[in-house]
Design goal:
Oligomer: single chain
Radius of gyration: 17 Å
Number of strands: 6
Largest sheet: 6 strands, antiparallel, barrel
Distance between the termini: 49 Å
Pfam family, one: PilZ
CATH class of the domain at 9-89: Mainly Beta
Protein name: PilZ domain-containing protein
CATH topology of the domain at 9-89: Thrombin, subunit H
Order of helices and strands: EEEEEEH
Structural class: mainly beta
Strand content: 35-45%
Length: about 120
C-alpha cells in the first residue's frame, strides 16, 4: 500500500540540481510538498546527500536523497514547499480517454482534422 503524506503531481520538467558547488541538469518527474523524484544519471548522488533544486526562477528548495534506483532519486525536502508552488509546477492528467481528447492550439481553439491520404 502506498502511504504518502502529500498529494503528488506529475511534472516532467528540466530543472537545475546543485550537489555542493556543481550544477547538473536533471528532470523533475514527480512532485509533492514534501519531496520529489528526479532523473539524474549524470549527477554524483549518494544516499543521504543534501542537494539544492532550482525548479524555476522563483521556486528553489533543498532536500536529502532518500533512495536511488537506475539513475533516479527520491528527495525529501528540508522544508515543505507551499501547495500553490507544487500545483503551479505540476499538472493533473485528464480523466478523458485519449481518443476523446481534442487537440487545441495555445489559445484553446480546436485544431482541424488532418487530411487522410
Amino acid at each position: 500500500m502506498d502511504e504518502r503524506n502529500y498529494e503528488r503531481f506529475v511534472v516532467d520538467k528540466d530543472i537545475e540540481c546543485y550537489v555542493g558547488e556543481r550544477r547538473y541538469n536533471v528532470i523533475l518527474y514527480d512532485l509533492s510538498s514534501g519531496g520529489c523524484m528526479i532523473e539524474a544519471p549524470q549527477a554524483p548522488l549518494t544516499d543521504g546527500v543534501v542537494i539544492h533544486l532550482r525548479m524555476n526562477k522563483f521556486i528553489e528548495t533543498s532536500g536529502q536523497v532518500v533512495w536511488l534506483a537506475a539513475g533516479n532519486a527520491g528527495v525529501r525536502f528540508g522544508e515543505l514547499l507551499h501547495e500553490a508552488a507544487v500545483r503551479h509546477l505540476g499538472f493533473t492528467p485528464s480523466d478523458l480517454p485519449f481518443d476523446e481528447m481534442t487537440p487545441t492550439d495555445r489559445f484553446g481553439r480546436r485544431l482541424p482534422a488532418l487530411p487522410r491520404h
